[in-house]
Design a protein that fits this description.
595 residues; alpha/beta; Rossmann fold; 10-stranded mixed sheet; 6-stranded mixed sheet; 16% strand; elongated
Length: 595
C-alpha cells in the first residue's frame, strides 16, 4: 500500500487548513474518490480526534459482527471475476471495515460507482482511513465512493443506482445473528417485523424469534435486484440461511437464472462453529430461464462441483444426483413418526444410578422413590449404534399416559415419587414453555399409547449419523426416548425388525441423505422422515434384499421368520397400517397400571 500521509497531516493541523468544507471535501474526493468525506465541520473535529486516538468503539455482538478478513474478500472477488462478473455499480449494504469495497476496487476494472452503508460510525471512520492509505493508487481512477453511516433497515438505496442499464453487484457479509439473540441484547439493530416469507398466524404478526437477520437482508436485496431486471448478489452467510433462501425461490418472483454456493471454513475465518458459504445469485441473465437448483463448490476449488441441491419437481432435496437414484420412495410414510418425551426439567425429571443402588437427580440428590413410573431413557447421543444395550445412562419420570391427563393418581400409586415431585413443584411450575401453564402439575408432553409400545425403531434427530436403532424393552419394561429422538412404535417384534432393516437399507439411506441438510440444527425431523414410503421401500427391496445385511447387526432373528411374514408385513402396510400399533401390550406399562 502507498500511504498519503500529507492529507492526514493537513487535516490534523487545523491551523494550516484554509478554505471551506466544500473545498476540503473536493480535495478529499480527488485523493480518495469518496464523495462528501466530511458531512459537516463537527465531523471534521470528531474524525481528527478519533484518528489521533485510533481506537474503535464497536459493540460487535449487538450487530452480529463478523468482519470479513481481507484475504477472504479477495478470494470472493476473484471467484466473481471467474464467474464473469465485472460490475459498474457495487453496493455493499453492511461494509464494516470495508474489505469488500477495497477488494472490489482491486479486482473489477469497470467500476463507476461504489455505494456503502454501515451503521457503526467507527467502522466508517476506519474504512475512510484505509482508503486514504490507498489514495495514491486511486487518484487517477474514474469512479466515486458514497459512504452512508446509517442503519440499513431504515436506509433507502437511491433509485438512480438501480434504474440504469449498468451492471449491478450487491456484495457483502450481513450480520450472522437471529432476532432472538438481538432481543436478548436489547439491540436496536432489528428490522421492522413484517411478513416477508408469507408466514401464517402469530409468526406472520410478530416474526419468528429464530429468524436470521442475514436471511431478511438477502431476501430484501434479491427483491431490490429483481425490481431492476438484472444484477448479481454475492453474500457470505451460514449454509442454513442459504438453504432457506434457495427453498424460497420456488414461490418467489425472483427471476434468478443462476445460483451457486462456495463453501468456506467459518471456524478458520470467523472462529464460528457453523457451515457457511458464499451465496452467489444472478438475476435476469439474457437467454436464460429461472432456475430452481443450486450448484455447490468449495471456495478453494471453485471449478469442481461437489453436488447440486434445490427443487426437483415439487420436492426440495440436498443432493439431486443421489435423490434421482432413490426418488421412487419419496412419498408419505404409512406409519406415524413421533418425537420422544418432552419435560423441560432434566435436573428433576431425569435420573441416573449410583452402582444400581440409588437414583440421583441432576441436583445431586439421592432419591428413595418407587420405580413404578420410572423408565429407562435414551437420548440422541445414545442412538449411535443400531442396537441398544440392556442398560441406559439415564432414567426418566413418566407422569402421564397422555397429554393433559390429571396427575393426582401418582399420590396413591407412588407416594414417595409424589412427595419428591411436590418438593420440586415450584421449579416445575416455572418451566419456561407456555405449554405447561394451563396443564396439570408435573405435566409432560410427547406422550401417548405409542410411548408405551414395547418395540421402537428410532433415530437421533440432532446428529449427522443416519442409522436407525432397534429399541427393545429392558427387564420387560418399555424404554422411553427424549424429544431429540424420532421413532416408530410397534407391538410385534417382527414388524419392528422388518422396519429396522428397511430403514437401514442402502436404498433408504441414499434417499434420506439426499433430502437431509447436515448443517441444520436437527437434520432428521419428522417432516423429513415421513417422506420415506415404507410400502414402496419394502416392495422395492423384497424379502431377500432386506435380509441380506441382517448379519451386520447384533439382533435376535426368530427361527420362524419367513417370506410369508414379510408378505404379511407388506399387506398390512398397504391395507391396515393401524394394525402395527393397537392399544399397548407393554407389561408394566403405565396404561396397565392405571386400568
Amino acid at each position: 500500500m502507498i500511504y498519503n500521509n500529507s492529507i492526514i497531516e493537513n487535516i490534523l493541523n487545523h491551523n494550516n487548513f484554509e478554505g471551506s468544507l466544500v473545498s476540503l471535501n473536493d480535495k478529499m474526493f480527488r485523493a480518495t474518490r469518496i464523495k462528501r468525506f466530511f458531512k459537516n465541520n463537527n465531523e471534521i473535529e470528531t474524525w481528527k480526534a478519533w484518528y489521533k486516538d485510533g481506537n474503535l468503539n464497536v459493540s460487535a455482538r449487538e450487530y452480529g459482527d463478523y468482519q470479513t478478513p481481507y484475504n477472504l474478500a479477495e478470494k470472493v472477488c476473484k471467484i466473481l471475476v471467474h464467474e464473469g462478473v465485472n460490475p459498474s455499480i457495487v453496493i455493499e449494504p453492511t461494509f464494516g471495515l470495508g474489505h469488500f469495497i477495497i477488494s472490489a476496487i482491486n479486482n473489477f476494472n469497470n467500476i463507476k460507482q461504489i455505494y456503502g452503508v454501515e451503521i457503526q460510525k467507527s467502522y466508517a471512520y476506519e474504512f475512510k482511513k484505509k482508503i486514504i492509505n490507498l489514495s495514491s493508487e486511486l487518484m487517477n481512477k474514474n469512479f466515486s465512493i458514497t459512504v452512508n453511516n446509517e442503519d440499513l433497515f431504515k436506509h433507502q438505496i437511491p433509485s438512480s443506482l438501480l434504474e440504469t442499464d449498468d451492471d449491478l453487484l450487491i456484495l457483502g457479509n450481513p450480520p450472522w445473528v437471529t432476532v432472538a439473540e438481538l432481543n436478548k441484547l436489547s439491540s436496536s439493530n432489528i428490522p421492522k417485523k413484517s411478513n416477508i416469507k408469507g408466514l401464517n398466524g402469530i409468526d406472520a404478526k410478530l416474526g419468528k424469534s429464530n429468524f436470521d437477520i442475514a436471511e431478511y437482508i438477502i431476501i430484501k436485496l434479491l427483491d431490490t435486484i429483481n425490481s431492476t431486471g438484472k444484477g448479481t448478489l454475492a453474500m457470505l452467510c451460514k449454509n442454513a440461511t442459504a438453504k432457506n433462501i434457495i427453498h424460497s425461490v420456488k414461490d418467489s418472483d425472483w427471476n434468478i437464472t443462476s445460483i451457486k454456493l462456495f463453501n468456506f471454513d467459518a471456524k478458520k475465518e470467523f472462529n464460528v462453529a457453523t457451515d457457511a458459504s458464499l451465496f452467489f445469485a444472478k438475476i435476469g441473465e439474457q437467454n436464460k430461464v429461472k432456475t430452481y437448483t443450486c450448484d455447490v463448490y468449495d471456495i478453494n476449488n471453485p471449478s469442481t462441483k461437489l453436488r447440486s441441491l434445490g427443487w426437483v419437481k415439487n420436492k426440495f432435496v440436498s443432493n439431486i444426483k443421489e435423490y434421482v437414484k432413490a426418488s421412487k420412495i419419496d412419498n408419505v410414510s404409512q406409519l406415524t413418526w413421533r418425537s420422544g418425551v418432552k419435560h423441560d426439567s432434566s435436573k428433576i425429571m431425569e435420573l441416573s444410578t449410583d452402582d444400581e443402588k440409588y437414583l440421583i437427580n441432576g441436583l445431586k440428590e439421592k432419591l428413595d422413590i418407587e420405580d413404578t413410573f420410572i423408565y429407562n431413557l435414551l437420548k440422541s447421543s445414545d442412538l449411535n449404534k443400531e442396537t441398544i444395550p440392556n442398560k441406559t445412562r439415564k432414567k426418566v419420570i413418566i407422569t402421564q399416559s397422555k397429554v393433559g391427563q390429571d396427575t393426582s393418581f401418582i399420590k396413591e400409586r407412588s407416594p414417595k415419587l409424589w412427595n419428591y415431585l411436590s418438593r420440586h413443584k415450584e421449579k416445575l411450575d416455572k418451566r419456561g414453555s407456555s405449554i405447561y401453564k394451563k396443564n396439570p402439575s408435573f405435566s409432560i408432553f410427547g406422550i401417548g399409547d405409542y410411548s408405551f409400545a414395547p418395540y421402537k425403531v428410532a433415530i437421533a434427530g440432532m446428529y449427522k449419523k443416519s442409522n436407525f436403532s432397534l429399541v427393545m424393552p429392558i427387564k420387560q419394561k418399555t424404554v422411553m426416548l427424549d424429544d431429540t429422538c424420532n421413532f416408530l412404535s410397534f407391538n410385534k417384534y417382527k414388524d419392528a425388525l422388518f422396519t429396522f432393516l428397511i430403514l437401514n437399507s442402502e436404498l433408504v439411506q441414499t434417499f434420506l441423505k439426499s433430502i437431509t441438510f447436515m448443517d441444520s440444527q436437527r437434520p432428521y425431523t419428522i417432516e423429513t422422515l415421513k417422506r420415506i414410503d415404507l410400502l414402496k421401500s419394502a416392495k422395492e427391496l423384497k424379502f431377500n434384499g432386506v435380509m441380506k445385511d441382517i448379519h451386520k447387526y447384533d439382533i435376535h432373528v426368530p427361527l420362524t421368520l419367513s417370506e410369508d411374514d414379510y408378505k404379511d408385513y407388506i399387506n398390512r402396510l398397504k391395507d391396515a397400517p393401524s394394525s402395527f400399533l393397537h392399544e399397548t401390550e407393554d407389561t408394566n406399562g403405565l396404561q396397565e397400571l392405571l386400568s
